[in-house]
Design goal:
heterotrimer, A mainly alpha (314), B mainly alpha (294), C alpha+beta (521), B: 294 residues, 66% helix, C: 521 residues, alpha+beta, D-Maltodextrin-Binding Protein, domain 2, Dipeptide-binding Protein, domain 1, Dipeptide-binding Protein, domain 3, 11-stranded mixed sheet, 15 helices, 21 strands, 23% strand, globular
């Protein structure tokens, strides 16, 4: 490369941010158009015996009867200043319920990915260095199975087993310290399965590399080789895999699991808002989640490139 | 290693494990194919296979556990909240579940392949726009956007089939583009160009048949992915609605009875898991045989 | 190694977040831990939750605590403990004085109320005629968009006559003002003018607002300046538990004291189960402007074709009963005792259909909102199956609630209007006038037009005499028995799950007033 690494990295980040912003704007626009054409949230919030005049009046008060471009410009102008509009359901700034739900989501997603990372990495490495053994085959199968079943269904199964039949854990709720166990377990299993498969594959590939045989022929014990070299080289991939899995989780699975366990996080808020046509909150959620995921993507991508440059394979 | 200009998570599907456990043999493959075959048969001939009319209500027998015997006979998986045979419902649900999954995957495949091939072949702004779109979309919380779109458009089978492909086309586009780039520089394409074939013909006649193998594996993986997504969306209430039945919907309908009739929710999910599992297992087998994952 | 570092970072964040989570969890209640002595001399101290506080589970978090703004159940459960109206409904549904001591209609467009003089708001503001005027003007204001539209119908203003006398001014004769006054909360002029009132409600009620931990719970505590009897329970929390399994489990474990909206299937699983007839009724409204539904005989046939007994006994597990073919129940004004539910008689139904000219039956669309009513799907499918047996093919159309509303609002004569819709309503006025919109020709929800009914309704609306009105509405419902406006379905029960220690008599209007509760032992 003719440019210095930092400049090219800077350009890379800016390029990706720009792309991300473009798509976000597109998504907001598409949703706005659809909401304008198809949505009718006022109907949801008007009292049961509202007449057509009442509906029209409400539309007028909320500004929904203005032409599309005016509404959009208004909304966009507000966005730039950080104003996401007002929640139709709660009559307060749309950003507030999201901010309040955020800690719950952060907590659950981090514990979930931590568990997934631990299970997947350790299992994957162990399986990768012992291909063909019973452990390897069984754990492979289990992992593929975990990835094949619907994640929300897995959560329901855990609920049935532990909460309904055995009655030893609560089905959901933020109040109990125990309430986090089942959703974390679900996330950990589902994402752990995928991490396992990738880690195993990478680890196995490492062990087939020439340097392993060379080291072994020198008389070094296999476990030493694994500890010092294999893991170091595979470590990068493992870390980035966990990172990508976290991004993937925030893009979808976390929401479904929050819903199943009635966990008061952003995902649950989004689904509730979708059901009650509370578009300002939904828009805000999509935008913020989008920003987060785009940023996380860039971070993980960037991180992997940086580490890649630093950690030259032995 | 991912192609230099394409960003986003590495397109490793859940099936890394190229150097898998040796000696699993062909009989395992046939087992999964047979299992899948059973489901496909059920999808086509559901009406005949089902022991009872899935719409036959008998409210007095509602929520009976599996293996209950009523006036009508044996209910292997019990009855639903209106007394309808659960097993028959599940069989009926096979059709739409598989249909939506396959159809949405097909659409996503076609769209993704076309965009990817065009991007790789023509380059320039076609490439830039197409790939930016794909890249950026992968970075978006698409599941959430799908929920939002469906709640706006209204939950229905048609809207599902429109929205679901958006979840998978970027992966196709990306991979097809990479392959197209690789093939484009071969003499084979240049020869065709020299002979005066138009871009479209080249893509159709030469490129795509060569990509078939790669596409095939990806399709197999994506079907499972799409089926799970449909189940998720129906479960959240923005997908299929009664009287259409899919397994995702059955899981959702049974959820409120989890404390008293857990089988209503758990069993359809089990079936879905089995179908996707067999698809994944078959996919793994072919992937292994094809070589590198991607 | 990157992996270890990431894990450590994750752990640190988790720990930090855990701390955050715990501090926002309040357990509500006072500091005193009373030791209560039972009759046999044993002393019990309640361990958890906190001593004098009870915990009520709600499935949906209220959108706001502005009692004048919203009318949904979730919000009312909280606000009706905080704010009060001029009048009140007692346990049996009768209207009795409350913040007002007396009331009477002094003119065609005026009702005069004399107020209690010993009432204060929680924030110290004085309760007087000015506060009442403020409250009325606030709720009827054009840009206020209250959801209690039926409660402000006909109200145009209020005037203070002297410090404790106030006139409510209506647009013409309005016999329903007393009913409306039971549900219009009186709010203090200063606090009520604040934009943040919905987050920090102030009223005259037995409990005052303490805190709202969004997403988790709301806490209230007894107001010691209350004008009425001091409540037995010092404080309570309302906890949001959306999942039915979880609230059930919490109740079983003794963590909470009350679950509202219990599912019928859970009846056997709770410590104390209460099922009481409520003001809610379900129906399938029929559009008489549609050719195949025009003949009253057809609509009667549809009523005979549905087995409501079985519906109530199975799908609602016995916690409902067939509605007496009126959108009313027995304690309400206008209820006609001689009108009964249509018995289940499919042969008669088929005979009637043939007589009306539909021997082969016909096809009909039934619009049902998604997820809105308890077991709505199942009921719709049940009814569809039953009607199918007499030859009427029902196509169920499931739509999102707002779409459903929009579509079902289209007036009957319009070709785009729906054939039929499944609905629930609650007659919280205990008065037939509440749903006159269903049967008057010009009514907003009406899909029927019978001149005789309109005439009777006119008459009933022009007098304040309850007896006369009662008679007139009874006549209307007699007509609507021969000429049904719906398939009359069920009168739904209210289902509650209580803990062992909670003493409470449910009310017929589904209000949850903690002031009437106490703890055993």
């Amino acid at each position: 490369m003719k440019q210095s690494p930092s400049t090219s990295m800077g350009r890379f980040v800016i390029g990706r941010l720009r792309d991300g912003a473009v798509v976000l704007i597109l998504v907001v626009l598409v949703i706005f158009v659809l909401a304008f054409v198809v949505g009718n949230p006022v109907e949801y919030y008007a009292p049961p015996d509202a007449t057509q005049e009442d509906i029209d009046r409400l539309n007028r008060i909320l500004g929904f009867d203005r032409p599309f471009h005016i509404q959009f410009v208004d909304y966009f102008g507000g966005l730039i200043q950080g104003d996401f509009g007002e929640s139709l359901f709660q009559r307060r700034p749309a950003i507030k319920p999201i901010m309040e739900a955020l800690p719950a989501t952060i907590l659950l997603s981090l514990t979930g990915i931590a568990l997934a990372g631990v299970l997947g990495s350790i299992g994957g490495v162990l399986a990768g260095v012992r291909p063909g053994t019973l452990f390897d085959r069984v754990s492979n199968f289990i992992s593929v199975a975990l990835v094949s079943v619907p994640n929300f269904w897995l959560g329901l199964v855990l609920i049935v087993i532990f909460a309904v039949q055995l009655r030893i854990l609560p089905t959901s709720g933020f109040f109990d310290n125990q309430g986090i166990i089942l959703p974390t377990l679900t996330l950990g299993l589902v994402h752990g399965g995928r991490i396992f498969l990738i880690v195993r594959s990478v680890t196995f590939e490492e062990t087939t590399k020439p340097y392993v045989m060379v080291a072994e022929s020198k008389g070094l014990p296999f476990s030493y080789v694994v500890g010092r070299h294999v893991l170091r080289n595979a470590g990068l991939t493992i870390a980035t895999t966990v990172g990508w899995e976290y991004v993937r989780m925030m893009g979808g699975t976390a929401f479904a699991i929050e819903f199943v366990f009635a966990w008061p996080g952003v995902g649950n808020l989004m689904i509730d808002s979708a059901h009650r046509q509370d578009f300002p909150v939904l828009q805000a959620g999509v935008i913020l989640t989008g920003v987060f995921v785009v940023t996380a993507n860039i971070v993980v991508d960037l991180g992997s490139r940086v580490l890649d440059r630093r950690l030259q394979p032995v | 290693m991912s192609a230099p200009t394409i960003a986003g998570p590495p397109p490793a599907p859940a099936l890394a494990g190229v150097e898998g456990p040796p000696g699993t043999g062909r009989w395992v493959l046939w087992f999964w194919v047979a299992l899948l075959g059973v489901f496909l048969v059920a999808a086509f001939t559901g009406d005949l296979l089902a022991p009872y009319d899935p719409f036959d209500q008998a409210p007095v027998d509602r929520l009976s556990p599996p293996m209950t015997v009523t006036e009508r006979g044996l209910h292997i998986f019990g009855t639903d909240p209106l007394g309808r045979d659960s097993f028959s419902n599940i069989i009926l649900g096979t059709r739409l579940t598989l249909l939506v999954g396959l159809l949405a995957t097909a659409i996503g495949t076609v769209v993704g392949t076309l965009i990817g091939a065009a991007a790789g072949y023509y380059g320039g702004w076609v490439d830039r726009i197409g790939m930016r779109l794909a890249e950026a979309q992968t970075a978006m919380p698409m599941f959430l956007v799908a929920i939002l779109l469906l709640s706006l458009l209204g939950p229905s089978v048609i809207n599902l089939v429109v929205v679901l492909p958006t979840l998978i086309w970027p992966t196709f586009a990306r991979i097809i583009r990479a392959e197209t780039l690789r093939l484009r520089s071969t003499a084979f394409i240049e020869a065709a160009q020299a002979l005066g074939c138009t871009g479209w013909t080249i893509m159709r006649r030469h490129l795509i048949p060569n990509l078939a193998g790669r596409i095939g594996v990806l399709v197999v993986v994506s079907v499972g992915h799409v089926m799970l997504a449909e189940a998720g969306l129906s479960f959240l209430g923005v997908g299929v609605q009664p009287p259409d039945i899919t397994w995702g919907l059955l899981i959702s309908l049974g959820r409120q009875y989890l404390a008293v009739a857990w089988w209503l929710t758990i069993i359809p999910g089990l079936f879905l898991g089995l179908v996707v599992l067999s698809i994944n297992m078959i996919g793994r087998h072919f992937e292994r045989n094809l070589g590198a994952a991607g | 190694m990157p992996r270890a570092r990431t894990l450590l970072l994750a752990l640190a964040l988790v720990l930090a977040a855990c701390q955050g989570a715990e501090t926002t969890t309040t357990t509500g209640g006072s500091d005193t831990t009373p030791a209560t002595t039972a009759a046999d001399g044993t002393t019990t101290t309640t361990a958890a939750p906190v001593a004098e506080g009870i915990i009520i589970a709600l499935a949906t978090e209220p959108s706001t605590l502005d009692g004048q703004l919203v009318n949904d159940r979730s919000s009312r459960v909280v606000t009706n403990n905080i704010v009060e109206g001029l009048l009140f409904r007692d346990q049996s549904g009768e209207i009795v004085p409350y913040l007002a001591e007396t009331y009477e209609a002094i003119a065609d467009d005026r009702w005069q109320f004399t107020l209690r003089q010993d009432v204060t708001f929680h924030n110290g503001e004085a309760f007087n005629a000015d506060a009442v005027v403020f409250s009325i003007m606030r709720i009827i204001a054009d840009d206020y968009e209250t959801q209690k539209t039926s409660y402000i119908e006909g109200l145009v203003g209020a005037e203070a006559v002297d410090e404790y006398t106030v006139d409510i001014i209506t647009d013409g004769i309005s016999p329903v003002v007393p009913a409306q006054m039971t549900s219009i909360p009186i709010v203090p002029p200063e606090a009520g003018a604040d934009a943040g009132y919905g987050d920090n409600p102030v009223g005259t009620g037995p409990y005052q607002f303490v805190s709202w931990d969004r997403g988790q719970q709301i806490t209230l505590e007894a107001y010691d300046g209350y004008w009425g009897e001091a409540p037995a329970i010092q404080s309570f929390s309302i906890r949001f538990i959306p999942d039915a399994q979880t609230s059930l489990a919490a109740l079983q474990a003794g963590e909470i004291d009350m679950v509202l909206d219990l599912l019928p299937e859970q009846a056997d699983l709770v410590p104390v189960f209460v099922s009481t007839p409520g003001p809610e009724f379900s129906y399938i409204q029929l559009n008489t402007y549609k050719e195949f539904l025009a003949d009253p005989l057809v609509r009667q046939a549809l009523n005979y074709a549905v087995d409501k007994e079985t519906l109530a006994a199975t799908i609602y597990e016995g916690h409902a009963r067939p509605n007496d073919a009126q959108h009313l129940s027995a304690s309400m004004l206008g209820y006609n005792e001689s009108v009964d539910a249509f018995p289940y008689d499919p042969e008669l139904a088929m005979q009637m259909l043939t007589d009306a000219g539909y021997p082969e039956g016909f096809t009909m669309e039934l619009h049902v909102p998604i997820g809105r009513f308890l077991k709505g799907n199942e009921t719709a499918e049940f009814v569809a199956a039953q009607l199918g047996e007499v030859g009427v093919i029902v196509e169920i159309v499931l739509t999102e609630f707002s779409v459903h509303r929009e579509v079902t609002r289209i007036p009957g004569p319009d070709p785009a209007s729906v054939d039929s819709r499944y609905g629930w309503n609650s007659n919280e006025w205990f008065d037939a006038a509440r749903y006159s919109g269903f049967f008057s020709c010009e009514g907003g929800s009406s899909k029927i037009c019978i001149d005789e009914i309109d005439a009777l309704h006119e008459e009933a609306s022009s007098t304040n005499d309850a007896e006369t009105r009662d008679q007139l509405y009874q006549q209307i419902w007699a007509i609507l028995h021969e000429n049904p406006l719906s398939i009359y379905l069920l009168q739904q029960n209210l289902l509650y799950g209580l803990s062992d220690r909670l003493q409470w008599e449910p009310r017929v209007d589904d209000e949850v007033l903690v002031a009437s509760m106490s703890l055993t032992g």
